[in-house]
Amino acid sequence: MAHAPAPTANNDGPVVLRESKENPGVRTVQVVRPEEEDASYITATIKGLGITVSHFAKNLAKVATGRRSSSMVETINYPEETIPYPKRNRGLHRLMQRDDGNVRCVACMCCPTVCPADCITIIPAETDDAGIEKYPARFEIDELRCVVCGLCVEACPCDAIRMDTGMHALPSETRAGGIMTKEKMLELGAPSTAVQGGSGPSWKDE
Ligand code: SF4
Ligand code: SF4
Prior knowledge:
Blueprint: E1 2-3, E2 8-10, E3 13-20, E4 27-30, H1 36-39, H2 41-65, E5 94-95, H3 110-114, E6 120-126, E7 134-142, H4 151-155, E8 161-162, E9 179-180, H5 182-189
Antiparallel strand pairs: 1-3, 2-3, 3-4, 5-8, 6-7, 7-9
The structure holds iron/sulfur cluster (2 copies).
């Protein structure tokens, strides 16, 4: 149950109007409204234009005098050119293969279970190999719904799915165009044989 102490303020945070007895972390706070001059979009627009013009003038002066430096705001011809991505960048999904070239996924359903966007569809089927039991007859990811969280990669118990392609989801005019099929993901991964037994190259080590 909540109780209502007198409003309190401290220098480190907002004014606390009410605090839950059972859960001290749950509080009702007073929202601080911006000052009138900060609330006006005209002031913000002028400030933004000022920053843009100052960057432009700074860059122009450096280019004119031949003094290029790392503090310059540079532009690139995207998408023909891209900036180097960090090593842990999550790109389009790819599916790994077994030593024999078959898909490494065993259709355990861990990744669709953990996926917060509910965008992984797997239809499992039985294999003749008693040691493997199942494989994904169909494995699709709706990249238009994917939030690129990487949880599917983390959840996979056998390193069957990775997001280290360095590629973005391709633009598409239809929803179907945003679906990555098993075949496309295997193609993207080739050659993508992961060493059996959990050892060998892993995106986590790179
Ligand atoms: S990256 Fe996240 S949202 Fe995308 S398929 Fe994997 S678990 Fe789902
Ligand atoms: S977690 Fe790995 S093995 Fe399990 S269904 Fe997903 S990709 Fe396949």
